[in-house]
Write a structure and sequence with these properties.
Distance between the termini: 29 Å
Largest sheet: none
Number of domains: 1
Shape: globular
Radius of gyration: 18 Å
Strand content: under 5%
CATH superfamily: Phosphatidic acid phosphatase type 2/haloperoxidase
Order of helices and strands: HHHHHHHHHHH
Number of strands: 0
Length: 232
């Protein structure tokens, strides 16, 4: 079983209890980051420097835009109508999710205390400065992007591939920014997938989820009930 499969097998029964938030410990699910000073970390640092050397002004602008913690970064997938002013239930649901994600990720960051690339090497020139006490593992942005992707792709399975491709780019932009290693982003992918899967099965989130789903599908002029098998 893959690490993701194991995490989901642990997460879903806990979420089914409907406790208003899982008791699953993400520290127990995520693999540890590469050790400080290890060959693995040095390899990751070279990856960050390689991305830095090749990033274009367009790449930089896109990465900076994706620093925003908002589900509406997925407007690339859904179009100009995907706007908080037009989707108040969606906006409220995903603001709640962002707060929940942050609370779940912070203890993991504090547990691992992984320094970000610019702290390890002065060669890294980040596009923005992060808070000194905001550790790097896992990436909070990637966690949010993937938990949003899980929920959005269940609301609109017709666009599942595009949604996850956008989440991949959202995570990659953290490396382009020079503020995360690839393994930070991968850990965020795993954490976000687990969180999203939990909330799909949590009764305390169900009413808000369904209101957001109905609103989004109506705005896209799709049938109220999504297809079970995604795109036809």
């Amino acid at each position: 079983m893959t690490m993701l499969g194991l995490a989901l097998s642990l997460a879903l029964p806990a979420a089914a209890l409907g406790s208003g938030g899982s008791t699953l410990d993400l520290v127990a699910v995520l693999p540890p980051p590469p050790a400080s000073g290890s060959l693995a970390e040095q390899h990751e640092l070279q990856t960050v420097l390689g991305v830095q050397a090749n990033r274009t002004p367009t790449d930089e602008a896109a990465a900076l835009a994706d620093t925003e913690h908002s589900v509406f970064r997925f407007a690339d997938v859904f179009g100009s109508g995907f706007d908080p002013a037009k989707l108040p239930h969606m906006a409220a649901f995903f603001v709640r999710l962002a707060k929940y994600d942050k609370a779940r990720v912070k203890p993991v960051k504090n547990y691992w205390h992984r320094a970000r690339p610019p702290v390890i090497s002065a060669q890294v020139k980040p596009l923005a400065q992060e808070k000194a006490d905001d550790w790097g593992y896992p990436s909070g942005h990637a966690t949010l992007g993937y938990s949003e992707a899980v929920l959005l792709s269940n609301m609109v399975p017709e666009k599942r591939a595009e949604i996850f491709a956008r989440a991949d780019l959202y995570g990659l932009h953290r490396v382009v920014m020079g503020v995360h290693y690839p393994s930070d982003v991968e850990a965020g992918r795993l954490a976000g997938t687990v969180i999203g899967a939990e909330l799909l099965h949590d009764p305390d989130w169900r009413a808000d989820y369904e209101a957001a789903q109905t609103e989004l599908r109506a705005s896209l002029k799709l049938p109220t009930t999504p297809p079970k098998d995604g795109p036809g």
